[in-house]
Every structure is written in C-alpha cells, then in structure tokens.
Amino acid sequence: MLNWKGLIMKNSWAEFVELIERFLLLKNQSLVTKLCIFSTVLVILPVLSVGIITYFFSSSEMEEEFRESSLQIIKQVELHIEYYLQDFEITSLKIINSPEIASLLRQEPIMDEENRFLSEKAVDVLKNSEYSRNDISNITIMLDNGFILDLLGEKNYYSAMNIKDEYWYSSLPENGMVMLVSRTLKLKDKELPVISLVRRLYNPHTLKPVGMLIIDINFKRIEEISRMVTLDKNGYFFILDSSGHYVYHPDEQKLGHKVEVSELATLENQKSGSMVIQNDDREFISYSLSQNLGWRFFTAVSYHDLRSGIRQIGSVITWTIIISLLFAYVAGFYGLTKSIVQPIQRLHSFMREVEVGNLKSKVKVESGDEIGQLTKGFNNTVAKLSTLLEEVYISKLREAEWSLNKTEIELKMLQSQINPHFLYNSLETIRGMALEQEQENIAEISSLLGKLLRYNLRNNSSTVCLREEMKFSEMYLQIQKLRFEERFEYVFDIAEPLRDYQVVKFSLQPIIENCFVHSIGEHAKKIKITISAHLHTDSSLIIKIADTGMGMEKEMLDDLTKKIRENASTLAGLHIGIMNVHQRIRYLYGAEYGITITSTRGSGTEVSLHMPIVQDKDVALHESDFIGG
Length: 629
Fold this sequence. Notes:
Shape: elongated
Helix content: 40-55%
Enzyme class: transferase
Distance between the termini: 71 Å
Domain HAMP: 338-390
Oligomer: single chain
Membrane topology: Multi-pass membrane protein
GO cellular component, one term: plasma membrane
Protein name: histidine kinase
Strand order of the largest sheet: 2-1-5-4-3
C-alpha cells in the first residue's frame, strides 16, 4: 500500500515539474518565442515599475511643493492683514480713551443740554477718526440705554438696533477684546460689504458694560492685499472667521454667510494644512489659522488644474516607456535574430544535412562569440569526420587504426594541459567528494582554496578596494582556523567608509601569514590578530596588522627596519613577504609610502602599511613591473 502511495506521489511530482517546464520555462517553444517572452518579463515589468514609481513620486512631490508654496503665500497675506487690522484696534482704543467719549459713557440716560453737547463732541471725535483713514466706511457707538451715534446717519438704511439680531452679537467678548465680523452696510442705492471691528464699551467709573463700538472697514485695502495671492487661473483666496462665516471672498454675495463645505467649518484644532474637497469641482485647499485674529486664510485651486502638470509628467513617462520599449524590441529582435537565431538555424540546417551524409559543405562563421566558436568547432568536427571516413574507405585497416591511435594521443595531450581553471574545477570536485564522504573540513578547505584561486584569476589589476582585500584575507584566516583551531583569534576593525579605498593587491595576506610563521609556531599560548585602519592625513591611509605573539628581538627588528628603509631587494629568505609588499607600495605610490614595523619581545608585533587615499583603480604601474616580487 505504501509503495503505491509513493509511486502516485512521485508521478504527481513529475507531472508538476513537467507543467512548470512546459508553461513557465517554455520547454517545447522555439528560441524566438522564449526570447520574446523572457525579454517581456525581464524588461517590460522593470521599466513599467520604474515608470509607475517615478510618476507617483513626482505626483507626491509636486503636490507637496504646491502645498508649501500655498502656505507661504497665505502666511504672507495673513501677516499683512494682521498688521493692517492692528492699526484699527489702536484707532478704537484712541476713540474709547478720548475725554469726550469717556464723558459720554459716564452720563445718565436723560437727554438734556449737557448730554447733547457731549454727543456733538463725541461725533467730532468719530468724524476725525473716520477722516484720518479712507478705508473707514462708518463708525457707530450703540449704548445699552438706546443712545446711538452713527456717522452715516440717515444714509444708513440698516438700523443699528438690528445689530442685536446678527449671528455674532451673542458671542461678543465681555473682556473688552475686539471681535472682527463680516457685515453689509445698506445705503440708499447700494449695499456695501465691510469688516466690522466690534468691542464692548465700559463706564470708566463703574467698569460696567454700557454699549459697543463698531468700526466698519471697507474692503479696499484687504482686496489689494488679497490680490497679492498669485494662484492658478482658476484659483482664488478667501477668509473665514472663527465661526465659519466668510470674511473675504471674491464673490461678494458670500460675505457674512456660513461656509457651504462642512469640512472647512470643522478645523478647530488644526493650525494649518491642506485637503481635497468635493463641491461643484474637486478643489485642493490649503489653510492657515491666525492666532491673533481667529480667522482662517484659505487658497483653493481646481484639483484637475493642479494635476495638469502631473498628468503631463505621466504622459511623458508613458510615451517615453512606449517609444523606448518599441525601439528596444525592434533593435533587440533584429539583433537577436541576426546574431543568435539565424546562426543557430543555419547550424541546425547543416546538422540535418550531416545526418543524411552530406559532409562536404560548411556553415559560414560570421562571429567570434560562443555560437561562432560552436559553428567553427562543428565545421572542424564534420571536416575531421569526413577525412576519417575517406581514410576508412581508401586506406587499409592498419592505417585506420594508426589514425585512430594518433587521434587518441592528441586528445590525451590536450587533456594533460592543466591550467588554473582546471585546478579550480579540481578543487570543486574534491569539495564535492568530501561532502559525499561527510568530510566537512576537507570540503571547507577546498572551497576556500577555490575562492582564493578564483580571486587571483578574476582580478589582474595592481590595486583593489580594501573591502576585497579584507575578504581575501579572511578566507586565508579561515583556512588557518581549520589548521590551528583555537590557538588564535582575529578581528577586523575597519570603518565602513575606509573599505572603499584602493590598496595594493595581496598586501594584507603576506603580513598576516608572518603572524603564523613567526608567532604561533614559537609558543603554545593563544594569540590575537587585529587588522585595523585609520586616516593618517587627509590624503593618506594607514592599515595596521598586529599580533600578540612573542615579538622580535631588538637586533632582528633593527636589521629588518634597516633593510626596509634601504629598500633591499632580498632578505635572505626571511620576511620576504613584508619586503615584497613594501616594494610594491613604493613602486606604485612613491618613496614616502611603505611599511614600518614595531615589535617588543614578549608583547607582539605591529606592521603598519602607509598608502595614499586612492579611489580610482587606474594606476601607472602594474605588478609585472615590480622588482623583488
């Protein structure tokens, strides 16, 4: 029963793999179809992703820039209007503190000759204040006892007593602070929208409220300030008071009325910001709260107009992607067809001719790439096959055997040509065999040796970045770790920015190797190897390799330092790695750079490599030019 279940699961897995290969890897499709589909997945999707991300990022950035610029404009207008209205607050204080008005506020409600005289004096004070500014439309004093002073007089067709019925009257501050409201003066032949500065009046003796002062300010100056706001052609600027009524709007019909959009009337805790509202047309609103006035200043632009630039960017990105992809497909399809598909088709056609025995023709080799080399090799193979067949039919069996033996010898000679790549592949084979035998140490050493060999093969430059040299050295240290186990430890103390600087290739490993040759071998205690780096000056770098081994005798250190200073070509077999690195540093960068050594017997040794800061990999000399390498 279990065997049947296992067989069914095995067949199901095989069918699943077959489906993957057929539909995802296009196992049975032509090469052209595979190239088109894979290029679609690998090219179109990343390009579309970049385009979409760019579009949304640009959209967000443009909205943020518009939001910031709108708030800056609002702040400027807000500041101008605050300063402007503060002047009227000062004017109201001058009126209240004038002796005539103060005397009027102290009088009883009986209208006698003295009160009439005071009223005339008070009117003069109000007229002087009105004449001093051309933006004051009217000044009214309304006392609780029914006494009213109105500079418009009979021209005002709106009784001052009706003020008690207006929306703001009940919320007038009792502490003498001013209140700014939007109102409309009704004259004989027109209605005049104004901003009224209102404040309570108090009896100077009893300090009880006795009435109110109303200064009606026309919109002349406020309109001038508001026109400073430069927005989109369909944008506009407006102001709401603390209760959500229009204080200023380009449409005068809305002045004094409640704002229509509920979202704008419920911004009590928000000082500034922006939003998109849905009214007759979607609008992008930016707003700011004036703490001094209690007003909110708004700018509104059509969201459609705001995003016109964003849509233009999206259109440019879209067309750029389309044109780029069309060009890439046309050029790529032509290039792939010309350089890959057609040569393979010609080779396939020739192979079919070889199958039926036509060994005389050849495929034209048009390139030096892998397909060209494959074609050339196949031509050679067919030519050799043709020659062998002719020899079989013409020559005797002995000659044929001799020819076959000769071919076998040639193949063995080719196989015996071991190169570094063969060594690398051999190490990989050893690693695989070790893993099969569960010899983890052998596998790891083979892997590390293979990586060291590949590092040597793939980089022929005289310099590499410090990061690569660290990786190479760490692989060497890992190999030694397998050899010496717990007899040493190592640490890299090199800041991340320093790892991108260029250093001489194979400059760290020979120094580290000396730590094992001259330290671990001398005693049994555990040593520590530290590789560190720091900036020596703004233009040079020092790399230090220190160990906690036995160190050197003073005589040996002095002799080694002298030979390094004299740039001796050899060291009689001692410390040859140090001298090699020192000479290569000097030949690459100059005599002011190189190696210095400090050591104390019993405390350890420290080797310092002084090199300039180089970020360009191009150097004048190459390692093949060095002496003593």
